[in-house]
Amino acid sequence: FFPQPRRFALPFQMKFSFVILFQALIILLLQRHGTSFVVRNVQKPSLFEFSGSILRGWVQGSNGEWEWEEDDPNFSSPAISTSKDPSPSVLVENFITSEIESTATPTLPKGSFKPKQSLGQNFLRDGNTVAKIIKYYVADATKSITENDSSDSMRAIELGPGAGALTDVLVRKMEELDASFQCIEIDSRSVELLGEKHPSLRVSHMDVMQADYPLISENEGGPLSIIGNLPYYITSQILFSLADASHSNAVRSATVTMQYEVGERIVAKTSTKQYGILSVVFQLYADCKLHFKIPPTVFYPQPKVDSALLGFHFIGPNQLRKRLGGVRPMDLRRVLTATFQQRRKTVRNSLKKLVLDLNGGDKEKAQITLDSAPLPLTQDTLEAIEIGDKFAVSQKLPVDWAKKRPEELSAGQFVELTRLVFNGNKLSNEYNGELGKKVW
Hints:
Layout: H1 12-32, E1 37-38, E2 49-50, E3 58-60, E4 66-68, H2 89-96, E5 123-124, H3 127-148, E6 155-159, H4 165-176, E7 180-185, H5 188-197, E8 202-205, H6 213-220, E9 224-229, H7 235-245, E10 251-259, H8 260-266, H9 277-285, E11 286-294, E12 299-300, E13 307-314, H10 317-324, H11 329-340, H12 347-358, H13 363-370, H14 379-386, H15 390-393, H16 411-422, H17 426-429
Parallel strand pairs: 6-7, 6-9, 7-8, 9-10
Antiparallel strand pairs: 1-2, 3-4, 5-12, 10-13, 11-13
Helix pairs in contact: 3-4, 11-12, 11-16, 12-13
């Protein structure tokens, strides 16, 4: 009955103009509040990519170097995601929260310092994360000193300081603690930058893989406390070099960042997929703790995986010898390599070749070893069990060890397995207690 209202159909060009105008207004409003955008030339018009504050605007050049596509001075620190599981480490954090305040967002001289992919550089750019890392570092170093020699002082070494996000805070903190502090850095640009910011800071221009920790420790007058944001591609090599250095008590503690998956492997429990050589070695050499998970957003350029901060309290050469019970670290390495390289096989099958080689190709002698019952535990291990030492309690090798797979044996049980395999062997009889300078 009533006349129908007339409908107006806007032409496509006018609709498109309204969309462009609306997006332009939104961008103008957000930019006035400090939000940044990246506008790229793409086939579809009016396609804007929001970069926000997580640095997705980094591009890699043909030479493999990373460059800023934009520099956002209004970066605000993202929230740090941590594990939901309650951890005793939270108590440590609460204890030292008031000692180290959050820092400002670390910055670099614009255009003069770009991360090198060849060096695995992912720089920290979040002040809250920097403060949190240093809190745990101080706690780890202090605990290791207290457990060994409460009268000793801290000797701090930072590995790969890069742009100095950790360094800037450490310089002040180490002065407060009256601790010595120096850095090891391979990038000459970083060495120059740190020299300008901290003229009195000692920076060794060298490859961290060539660092002689025992010599540095000797020159500094005692064990070192290591901190560093480690490059992913050489994390394992650096950690193994620290384990070697602990043979001479050159390194006492280490608090370092690494790929989260690597951290999981280090603290993994037996009978899990993550459990492997890293788990055995570092659970033997140190008390290890995964402090917290670190999201990619606090680094630039952003890695594609999560990171983690781990703390290592190395037990030192005297305690290590007691745990090893006469086993040479090099012999342990041979057993670990033989078993975990064939982790789907039983321990018996994976050790056949090694045992045969140790017995000069004599199959009968090799078979006797593979059929042997576990050896009696050493006196040091028995004494450790009496006082409830967690490592020693799980050290006894099961009777059916040969039927087990490598991920089912604890670090202590691998020590006992090595004792059994090398028992009576000439190499074992010649062992004089030296742990070795370079094993891992």
